[in-house]
Automatic annotation (TrEMBL):
Species this chain originates from: Actinomadura macrotermitis
UniProt-listed SUPFAM superfamilies: Protein kinase-like (PK-like)
Keywords: ATP-binding, Kinase, Membrane, Nucleotide-binding, Transferase, Transmembrane, Transmembrane helix
Identification of the protein by name: non-specific serine/threonine protein kinase
Gene3D superfamilies, per the entry: Phosphorylase Kinase, domain 1, Transferase(Phosphotransferase) domain 1
Length: 418
């Protein structure tokens, strides 16, 4: 057993076994002996030729890597627990997700079907939205940094991330990032922006669909040359995702798809074209009534049904500016089963999205969906982790107790034990 495998960090994090190695360090399976839970521990490798000042910069980058995702709250972003300095180098303690990366899945299975890539893209876009709203740019989105844990898609490794309020720590003359997935403007020396992350998302989705990124060549310089000089190839296996991928891979960042437009195109690819939202001009709707007729239909000699079509005046309906909760109804008595459930969630309005999983060495996803208004979901497992993305749109009962509603758009997390 190596010295690292015998190490206990900060008197509580024991290294158990090595999970994998990358260009900038080693990831270990660990155990938090204080909280008695499995964790992942990233041991960052410090280049041996760094000066003392450069070593200080490296430590600052490490702290930033921990702070970036630690400030974010999303099931699609890996959760960071702690960062410690031990044995002369930094270690980042985070959520353990024992699941294959998108890169491993592509290598093992080849190109993925558009339907699955569309789902992955939507989850990653949500994760980027959370980061970008917090002023954080990832700068290294690629398939190896995307973990696929059942229905859960998790963005990891914010080692190159920076926030709008932090100073740049990239050394002059050093290229940072992965050439096959870096945006053209960043490769040319410009500052990374949220739209640079969107390019990387497009390259990642392209790789998932085609089996390789769009500009990958035999070496770094050839890749960067192709990125600068060649046209973006059209994906051949994209199906309905073609416009999303090509829009994200627009070389001019001002013409690149915005987050909102990318989300709209992904939604259209997942659900098909949306019907027109324009209300019909007449304030009438067709009413169809099928009534059983007891008499015999003379021409056929059998009993039948009569189809009666009429017009019924349509009520004015709710105001488009009214509070949707008012029309969904205030909290009522607990639904049947709430008292016997660990968790019960009922949608009081559209937008009640939940993510529910059973914790453990292997996370089991029970639900990752938007619940139709008026419907409910019930869970009976003794241990659960749950995320409610818009707590104003949901009613929540935990062990039979009704939880207070939150503000519109407020995300709430629940760790449940029974």
């Amino acid at each position: 057993m190596s010295q690292s495998e015998r190490l206990v960090l900060a008197t509580r994090y024991r290294l158990v076994s090595e999970i994998g190695q990358g260009a900038n360090g080693t990831v270990w399976r660990g155990h938090d002996e204080l909280l008695d839970r499995a964790v992942a521990i990233k041991e960052l490798r410090i280049p041996e030729d760094l000066s003392e000042n450069e070593r200080v910069v490296f430590y600052r980058r490490t702290l930033r890597e921990a702070r970036a995702p630690a400030a974010l709250r999303s099931t699609s972003i890996v959760e960071v627990y702690d960062v410690v300095i031990e044995a002369g180098r930094p270690w980042i303690v985070m959520e353990l997700i024992e699941a294959p990366s998108l890169e491993q899945l592509i290598e093992r299975s080849g190109p993925l079907p558009p339907e699955r890539v569309c789902y992955i893209g939507r989850q990653l876009l949500d994760a980027l939205g959370v980061a970008h709203r917090a002023g954080i740019v990832h700068r290294d989105l690629k398939p190896s940094n995307v973990l696929l844990d059942g229905d859960r898609v998790v963005l990891t490794d914010f080692g190159l991330a920076f926030s709008s309020g932090s100073a740049s720590l990239t050394k002059t003359g050093h290229f940072m990032g992965s050439p096959a997935y870096v945006a053209p403007e960043v490769a040319a020396g410009e500052k990374a922006t949220p739209r640079s992350d969107l390019w990387s998302l497009g390259a990642t989705l392209y790789a998932a669909l085609e089996g390789r990124p769009p500009f990958e060549r035999e070496n770094v310089m050839a890749t960067l040359s192709a990125l600068a000089n060649e046209s973006t190839p059209a994906p051949q296996n994209a199906g309905g995702l073609g416009s999303v991928v090509t829009g994200l891979l627009e070389k001019n960042p001002t013409r690149r798809l915005t987050h909102a437009r990318a989300a709209d195109r992904l939604e259209r690819a997942m659900t098909g074209p949306r019907s027109s939202r324009r209300a019909p001009t007449p304030k009438y709707r067709m009413m169809v009534v099928i009534g059983l007729i007891g008499a015999t239909v003379a021409s056929c000699g059998i009993g039948g049904t009569a189809l009666v079509v009429g017009m019924m005046k349509e009520g004015p309906g709710p105001s488009p500016t009214a509070d949707p909760k008012r029309h969904a109804g205030a909290p009522t008595a607990a639904p049947a089963g709430a008292a016997d459930s660990t968790l019960l969630v009922r949608a009081r309005a559209d937008g009640c999205k939940i993510f529910v999983s059973v914790p453990g060495s292997q996370i089991t996803v029970l639900a990752n969906e938007t619940i139709p208004a008026g419907s409910a979901r019930q869970f009976d497992q003794p241990k659960l982790n749950a995320v409610v993305y818009d707590s104003a749109a949901c009613e929540v009962w935990v062990n039979g107790e009704h939880k207070p509603e939150g503000r519109a758009g407020e995300l709430k997390r629940y760790t449940l034990h029974r």
